[in-house]
Structure formats: C-alpha cells, structure tokens
Design goal:
- By secondary structure, the protein is α+β, with helices and mostly antiparallel strands.
- The chain has one helix and two strands; from the N terminus they run ββα.
- It has one helix at 47-60, and strands spanning 32-35, 40-43.
C-alpha cells in the first residue's frame, strides 16, 4: 500500500462571465474544437472574436471613464483659445 495521494482531475476555466457558450454552437466555450479520437484540437470559428473581446475588455479597464470620450475635436479641448504667444508647431 502506498501513501501516494489520488490523482486529481484538473479542469481549465473556460468561457467568461459575459458569455459562457460558443455562439456558433461548435465548441464548449473554450475557442477550441477537440477531437478525442486523435487527441488534437483546432481553432473554433468563435476564437478570434473571443480574443478580440478580451483585448477590448483589458483596454477598457485602463482608460478612466472621465477620459473615454475626450477628443481634440470636441469641447473643452476645441474651445480652448490659442494664445498669441503660443508658438505654432
């Protein structure tokens, strides 16, 4: 008898809180289609969209809400008066 612990089965966290399934109904929400017989995985059609959504979510967290709509074409930036002493570039 050995004192070795029983092997545990690990499961990867898949999907996101926003949408847990594949919008195409092909994969399990991971972005990969797994072929159990050949033990291989290929990209699902939804994978590119999932990657793009993750990138967008990361960027949203870095720009404070106060500054998300700021543009040089809109007030208050466009309403700032240019001083005569300000050198033109």
């Amino acid at each position: 008898m050995s004192n070795a612990p029983e092997p545990r089965e690990f499961t990867a966290r898949r999907g996101s809180a926003a949408g847990d399934g594949c919008p195409l109904g092909v994969c399990d929400g991971s972005g990969f289609v797994v072929d159990e017989t050949t033990n291989t995985a290929i990209d699902c059609g939804c994978r590119a969209a999932r990657i793009a959504a993750a990138r967008t979510a990361r960027l949203e967290g870095r720009i404070p809400k106060l500054y998300r709509g700021v543009s040089f074409d809109r007030p208050p930036i466009s309403d700032m008066a240019i001083s005569e002493r300000t050198p033109m570039v």
